Amino acid sequence: MTRLDTVVIVPTYNERENITELVTQIMAQPVAGLGVIIVDDNSPDGTGEIADALAIQYRDRVHVVHRPGKLGLGTAYIAGFQKGFTFAPKRLMTMDADFSHNPRYIPDMVAKSAEYDLVIGSRYVPGGGAENCSLPRVLLSRGANLFAKIMLNLHAGDCTAGFRCYRREVLETIPLEQIFSSGYSFLVEMLFLTQRAGFRVGEVPIIFENRQLGASKISRQEIFKAQYTVVRLAARRVLAGDAQALAMLGLALGLLILTTAVITQRRNKT
Question: CATH number, domain at 70?
C-alpha cells in the first residue's frame, strides 16, 4: 500500500463539474505522500461514480467514502478523518470541492504544519483575500468571523475557514464523536476545541475564490446553526468561570433571538 503522509478530505455533493479537475490538481502538488479521500453524500448528479473512477485512476492515493445522503458537512469531515486514520498519516487536511480553496496552497500549509498543530488557509491575514465574492457574502463572512472571535476568544483571523491542515495528534486528542455541530458551524467548534486543548494554531494567506461552477451549499438554516453553536460554546466558557464571556453571552442571545425572528418572518411571507 502506498504510504500517505498527508490526506486531503474533500466532502462532495453535486460537484461533478469540479471534482475531476480538483483531484488532478491536488495530485500534481509537490508534496510527498499526498492522498485524497472524497466523502460523497450520494450526489444525484453522479459525483460518487466519478470519484470511484478517480480512485481507480490513482490507485492507492485516492479513496472514496460513500454515504446514503446529505448528513452534514461536519459529519462528512469526521467520516473522512476516520477513513484517513487507517493510513496513519502525519497530517489530515480539509478543503472544499468547488475551487474556493486552490490546491496550490497545499505545499505552504503542509510546510507550516512543521511549526503549528493546526494551519488555516486564511483570507484575513496579510496577503490573504477574496475574489468574485458579492458584498453581502463578504459582510456575512466578516461578521461571522468577528462574532466568533469575540464570543469565544479565538486567536485565528479566519475562524470559519474550511481549508485546514491538522496534525493527526490534534484529531486523535479532540473527542470527535462528542462534537454537536454538523454543518459549517463544525469548523468553529473544531477551532474552539483545538485552541482550548492547547494546540498551536497558525495561518497561511490564501485568496479565496468564489465558486464558478455548481451551486452554493450555504443556507439561512446553516447561518442560524452557526450562531447557535457560538452561543452554546460561549455558555461553556461561562460555566468554566470566564466572567468576560457572561456579558458577551447576553449579547449573543439577543442577536440569536433577532435572527430567528427575521428568518421566521421571511418564511411566513413565502
Answer: 3.90.550.10
Interstrand relation of 91-94 and 62-66 (parallel, antiparallel or unpaired): unpaired
What tens digit of pLDDT does each residue of 102-124 get? 999 999 999 999 999 999 999 99
Which residues are within 8 A (CB) of 65 and not within 5 positions of it... i.e. 6 or more apart?
37, 38, 39, 40, 79, 80, 83
pTM for this predicted structure: 0.83
pLDDT digits (tens, 9 = 90+) for 61-95: 999 999 999 998 999 999 999 999 999 999 999 99
Task: Give the list of residues 6+ apart from residue 70 with CB closer than 8 angstroms, or none.
Answer: 13, 41, 42
What's phi and psi for 174, nearest 5 deg? -75, 130
Within a domain: 259: no
Note whether residue 177 is domain-resident: yes
